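Thread: Newbie trying to understand structure tokens

Hi all, I'm a second-year student working on a class project, and my supervisor (Dr. K.) asked me to get a predicted structure for one chain before our next meeting. I've only ever worked with sequences, so writing a 3D structure as a token string is new to me. If someone could post the tokens and maybe explain what I'm looking at, I'd be very grateful. Here's the chain:
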Amino acid sequence: MPKEADHPKGEGDEKEKTQDLSEDMVRKRVRANTPSPNRGITPQASPPRFVSVDELLETAKGVNNMALAHEIMVNQDFQVKPTELPEGSLERKVKEIMHKAFWDCLEVQLSENPPSYAHAVKLLAEIKETLLSFLLPSHGRLRSHIEEVLDIPLIQQQAENGAVDISRLSHFIVGMMGSLCAPCRDEDIKKLKEITDMLPLLKKIFSVLDLMKLDMANFALTSIRPHLLQQSAEYERNKFQEFLEKQPNALDLTEKWLEDTVRRLREAGADGSTAASADPPSLLPLTVHNQAYLRLLRWDHSSEPFPETVLMDQERFQEMSQEVGRLVLLSSVLLIVYTTTGEAISGLPGLMDTLKNTVSALLADTHTLSFSMEEALATTGEKLCVELKKCLTQHGHAAFSTDQSSALIGQISATIQPDNTVRKLMESRIHSYLLTSLESSQRNTPPPLPGGLAPFSRELKEVAVRFSRLVNFNKLVFSPFYQKILQKVLTAGESPGTEP
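---
Reply by user tm_fold:
Sure, no problem. This is what the structure looks like when written as tokens:
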């Protein structure tokens, strides 16, 4: 593997996370043929059919593969991680016993007089194949060198005649590993060179080789990810089509999601700002589609089933929804502070960052169950009053009065209400920014930042990039399904005598 590129570390066991996600998705998607009592009656495109166990298992396997391919594409930090068997599990105990038996046997063979190298030669052959697997086609000289030094038939003959030098071969292997490993393994190679006993050295060599295999796999993922976009989209689309053929009702929630979006847009007007009229406005499929994705950031995950086509990304949408909610709250508080205090603090160097850091620290855990929003907002108001009093005094302005402090604390505490005027304003601006970012993502022209959001420009832009990337890939995969649904929904809503 090329030495030049190191590899970023992922956060947690992404492979296990993907498997858990796909299994959960299978359980949610494979629903009974008869409609659930809490979902209402939905017309079926085809008559219900029974599914065999073999078909179900094959479908589950396909969904699992689809989830893994999806994770590789949308998670830029995805990495292959070593599988950690559960502590105390039978599989782990068996593995530990087998490994101990093998290394004990090798130790006995090497301690014999004369030493027996039957197991050692097998290990060298396995190490040789692993080293060769790291080479690129251009590494012809390295390949020849490894083949020459680790000539297994010759080593076998030397072992039979008691002339093999395992120590020399091991040091050659360590040196070759050092030239092929990623920079993040340099410390491991250094430790290998410090080991003098043969058995611990061979054990550690295999341990480091396993890490190098993971490095190579992750390097390959990073290298080919830009070229996999279209292939991955087609693969996911085909796998979902196979699933849909076995489960004809697998798009029911997606249809409801888009139908509800059309209904809401028609009730509010095509642009979301005009009142509803007797003649529903014409809606473009793209407008409906983008607004539908924006709705996912306001989704009630505890009571409303998530649409099937975005189910694999439900956790990501939840995380973005929490981040958006936090930015709405933070920007609302700062807007109240600057509107209330006025020109006295406008443009003071460093004050904005100080206030932002104070508010961010106090409202950092808004998504946790133990968090008390009411207490946090009251504390935030008190802390900000202290900071403002100190700042105003330093710059020769009159300090905050008790009445002004009470009024500011009260306004900040009032943002706990979802219908608070300032909160609704900032939420509207942030959602508009995300929607505009989505619409302009194809042109690579970021939209202007709405008023009051400058202190959080970096955070907001990061959310917008993640949101646009996720949505655009989802569109690429499921666009044929969405087009059919939207054509039916929009045509039905615009037909005379038909209710939207």
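A couple of things are worth pointing out once you decode it. The two ends are 59 Å apart (CA to CA). The CA atoms of residues 443 and 462 lie 17 Å apart. Feel free to ask follow-ups in this thread.
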